[in-house]
Amino acid sequence: MGKGRTESVVAVWCLLWVAARGAPDTRVVSYHCEGWTQADSDYESAVDRVVRKLVMLTGDNGNDYLTYETVGKSTCFGHAFCEASLSATECTSCLQAARNVQLVRCGFPVRAVMILRSCFLKFQEVIF
């Protein structure tokens, strides 16, 4: 087999592997938002920090991650989970989609749960 043909076979195999594996399913199953924070409040900052950590760190922590942030006297607790079959990058992608659901449909609520087919993200002001 020539060099060009070998590269073509490898490229096709890679495409088939990616297609078979698939990307995360980011279709929204449901979401719930409750309570509203004041703009530029300490709690809004805590929510933002928690959600950013969940999006960036869940995939690198076994696709299941709990965290919290305290800003001033306000604390926000968060939890995110991705399907075990997702890679860290795919998990991050799914949770970014969940964050977009939060921002578009909820803004910065006190409590929220975004459930997508391949992941979920939730946060609230009390520990789980």
Report on this model:
With 128 residues, the protein is of the alpha+beta class. Helix content is 42%, strand content 31%. It has helices spanning 3-21, 42-57, 88-106, and strands spanning 28-36, 64-71, 74-82, 109-116, 119-124. It has a five-stranded antiparallel beta sheet. A hairpin with a 2-residue loop joins strand 2 and strand 3 (74-82). Helix 2 (42-57) packs antiparallel against helix 3 (88-106). The longest helix has 19 residues, at 3-21. The N and C termini lie far apart (58 Å). The model is unreliable at 8-20 (pLDDT under 50).
Jot down its keywords:
alpha+beta, 3 helices, 5-stranded antiparallel β-sheet, 128 residues, globular
What is this entry, summarized?
By secondary structure, the protein is an alpha+beta fold.
Please render the helix and strand layout as text.
Layout: H1 3-21, E1 28-36, H2 42-57, E2 64-71, E3 74-82, H3 88-106, E4 109-116, E5 119-124
Antiparallel strand pairs: 1-4, 2-3, 3-5, 4-5
Helix pairs in contact: 2-3
